[in-house]
């Protein structure tokens, strides 16, 4: 890596963080230390319907308790702020206008239910329904003729092989239009999608490597297409295998017993949790990895 290493932690304050989050963030900190770099904290709080102040405060407190340290963030500031996505809407709006004016996106009036009801509607590997193209124009146009609010979708290059080299999985390659379809970049309620906000923030905050879960492999391809359309240089990536419960279901914020807050209240120490074998693994390139690591009770 020629540029200074800048990693990031980017939790969403929609629930208490669980041990799977901690494992991914701990790995992000290890890689920042390995490369003598900087770690940034970003509050991905765009989903205002689910965001709660108590979760925003808890994620800062719980991650510091666990042993994570960052040099920039909403609690301490820094040169690339603001560090809450809800305060960066102007940046996303500017990017949306560029995509629209250059013909990369188009208005879509289909609901998720409409898409799922389409005959034999296929799904991508991240369970995102592949858009059947109902509203897709036959040629690029940017005018929305309806007064109804619309989603705006990015037109993927059908049949084109999209790929990137992941520091953990190696080469990740998928075919646009077959493995994933046109995706939303701006919602009908006026909120940017995760894909747009994430790539704009990662580039704007000069993140050099993103460490995150393997459930976001396809999101990386989508974000790289956005970066290319906007003339931006995306970061590199390191995707971690997901943690699952004993039934093979990946940990989510609904797994309250595995939350850092619950474990902390139950008397666990950060040192005890970090000593678990799931935390002791190589932090360099790992080669192909399975999508899920079972977390034993």
Provide tags for this entry.
Rossmann fold, Glutamyl-tRNA Synthetase, domain 3, disordered C terminus, two-stranded parallel sheet, alpha/beta, 2 domains, 297 residues, 3-stranded antiparallel β-sheet
Describe the structure.
This protein has helices at residues 19-34, 53-66, 89-101, 112-117, 194-204, 217-230, 260-265, 270-274; strands spanning 6-9, 38-41, 105-108, 151-154, 161-166, 170-175, 183-186, 209-213, 236-240, 242-244, 292-294. It folds into two domains: 6-86 and 206-294, 3-Layer(aba) Sandwich (Rossmann fold); 92-186, Alpha-Beta Complex (Glutamyl-tRNA Synthetase, domain 3), CATH 3.90.800.10. 35% of the residues are buried. It is built from eight helices and eleven strands. The chain is globular and about 60 Å long. 29% of the residues lie in helices and 16% in strands. Helix 5 (194-204) crosses helix 6 (217-230). Mean pLDDT is 87; it is low at 282-297. The strands form five sheets. It has a three-stranded antiparallel beta sheet with strand order 3-4-7. A two-stranded parallel sheet has the order 1-2. It is an alpha/beta fold.
What is this structure, in a nutshell?
The protein has 297 residues and is α/β, with parallel strands linked by helices.
Rounded mean pLDDT score:
87
**What spatial form do the alpha-carbon principal axes imply?**
globular
Domain module count: 2
Tell me the Rg in angstroms. Answer: 19 Å
The order of strands across the largest sheet is 3-4-7
Order of helices and strands: EHEHHEHEEEEHEHEEHHE
What fraction of residues sit in β-strands? 15-25%
In whole angstroms, how far apart are the ends?
A: 38 Å
Q: Helix/strand/pairing class, anyone?
A: alpha/beta
| CATH class descriptor name of the largest domain | Alpha Beta
CATH architect. name of the largest domain: 3-Layer(aba) Sandwich
> How many helical elements?
8
* Strands, count: 11
Q: Give the biggest beta sheet.
A: 3 strands, antiparallel
Helix content: 25-40%
């Amino acid at each position: 890596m020629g540029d200074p290493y800048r990693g990031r932690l980017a939790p969403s304050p929609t629930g208490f963080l669980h041990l799977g989050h901690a494992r991914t963030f701990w790995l992000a900190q290890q890689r920042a230390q390995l490369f003598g770099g900087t770690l940034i904290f970003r509050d991905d709080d765009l989903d205002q319907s689910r965001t709660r102040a108590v979760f925003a405060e808890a994620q800062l407190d719980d991650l510091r308790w666990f042993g994570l340290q960052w040099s920039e963030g909403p609690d301490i500031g820094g040169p690339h702020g603001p560090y809450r996505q809800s305060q960066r809407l102007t940046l996303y709006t500017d990017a949306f206008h560029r995509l629209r004016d250059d013909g990369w996106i188009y208005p879509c009036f289909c609901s998720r239910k409409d898409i799922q009801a389409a005959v034999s509607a296929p799904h991508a590997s991240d369970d995102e329904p592949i858009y059947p193209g109902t509203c897709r124009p036959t040629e690029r146009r940017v005018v929305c003729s309806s007064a109804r609010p619309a989603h705006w979708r990015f037109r993927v290059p059908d049949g084109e092989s999209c790929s990137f080299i992941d520091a953990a999985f190696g080469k990740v390659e998928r075919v646009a239009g077959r493995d994933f379809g046109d995706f939303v970049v701006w919602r009908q309620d006026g909120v940017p999608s995760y894909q747009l906000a994430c790539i704009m923030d990662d580039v704007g905050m000069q993140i050099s490597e993103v460490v995150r879960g393997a459930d976001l492999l396809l999101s990386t391809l989508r974000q790289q297409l956005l970066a290319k359309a906007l003339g931006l240089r995306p970061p590199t990536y390191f995707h971690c295998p997901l943690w699952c419960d004993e039934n093979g279901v990946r940990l989510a914020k609904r797994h309250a017993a595995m939350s850092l807050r619950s474990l902390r209240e139950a008397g666990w120490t950060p040192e005890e949790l970090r000593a678990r074998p799931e935390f002791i693994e190589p932090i360099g390139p790992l080669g192909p990895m399975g999508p899920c690591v079972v977390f034993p009770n």
